Amino acid sequence: xxxxxxxAGVLGTGFYVPDRVLTNSDLEKMVDTSDAWIVERTGIHxxxxxxxxxxxxxxxxxxxxxxxxxxxxxxxxxxxIIVATLTADCVCPSAASILxxxxxxxxxxxxxxSAACSGFVYASSVAAQFIATGVYxxxxxxxxxxxxxxxxxxxxxxxxxxxxxxxxxxxxxxxEGYGIRAFDLGSDGSGADxxxxxxxxxxxxxxxxxxxxxxxxxxxxxxxxxxxxxxxxPATLLRSLERAGLSPxxxxxxxxxxxxxxxxxxxxxxxxxxPEKFIINIGKYGNVSAASIPMALxxxxxxxxxxxxxxxxxxxxxxxxxxxxxxxxxxxxx
Length: 334
Ligand code: ACO
Hints:
binds acetyl coenzyme *A, Peroxisomal Thiolase, Chain A, domain 1, 4-stranded mixed beta sheet
């Protein structure tokens, strides 16, 4: 007989952003753009940038400390650390291993997870499996990015969009019927060329020619990704809701990936979810890829917006192409 499934939920959250703010008017001095264009087309007013010498594991560390304190969990209690990122300190070793040492999480396994902007939801669903089977009891899941290091600061199509930051959640067993109720993960690799950093791995060695062509920087077919996103985000959310036996009307809080306010508005229209149920912080932080959703989750939790029993929905999409959503019944006491 299979062991009884244990429900997994968020025990604590935290987020961290670097101090340096890059405003739209700063960008006006760097490329041919305007505050009005950026706000109207994206909803972004400013974003944060990490110092050159700061790796992603440092942002993850700061967010992790806050989440552990919020959860009342010590680093020694952690069984597993998963860092969702596309901007790890290096290809090898993982940012999660570096973070494990930095935290002093002596008993934790550690690995990175690569699913771009969908990464935190992917990682949360992995954590839920280990907790459901009783294998692990305390799992730290982090979305962290230093995208500013890969942005082409001469390309106005992309440089206005991205920012740096980290968001973290500690998952553990929760009361029966609470925590992650359902999730949906997906990928369509036929869209792999639409968004990514072409020369960042084993396909292209970094040569002067690669640097001249700026292939070590973020490239994106913005309109194609936009079209994909407005279909994919509502579709994945509806699949998760169906698996949870719920409908859009049951959602108390919806945290979409913060890529573009127009994508979020299109999703709101398709799903008929009222705007006051959306948690949106894109204006302050821009698109922080895997960190966007956990930053918004931690910020809203820190403001005391969630109450025990609330239905909190997360949905992301991004490079891969990938998409992911999950439905949680908030388990934490106020
Ligand atoms: N300032 C001023 N003008 C600009 C800028 C800018 N920063 N960027 C582009 N333009 C111009 C273009 O050159 C174009 O000019 P043209 O008509 O003379 O050719 C015009 O504005 C319109 O360009 P579009 O690309 O059609 O602009 P659009 O409204 O599609 O907005 C954007 C572009 C914001 C990139 C949008 O397509 C988008 O948000 N796409 C989705 C991005 C996304 O969701 N990524 C998520 C995943 S991220 C991840 O996984 C890491």
